[in-house]
Prior knowledge:
Oligomer: single chain
Structural class: mainly beta
Low-confidence stretches: none
Number of strands: 6
Shape: globular
Largest sheet: 6 strands, antiparallel
Number of helices: 1
Amino acid sequence: MPIVRPLITDQDFQEAVDLQYKIRIFKDNHLIDSGTFVIRFTDETVVTQSEVSTLGYYKRNECDFFELRK
């Protein structure tokens, strides 16, 4: 069973970047992205990459981020 942990603090996001955890992103209780990696983050934005040229930009205050690992 996979472990699902919310990413809230900068330390959580940095760990996801360093260890390349796949994440799920929810907005308004709807899954909007899954199986993507965090490549960069700021206080306002999280940048993800799921394929070589597929980048996603999400506002931290509008979305919920969850680490997904086995």
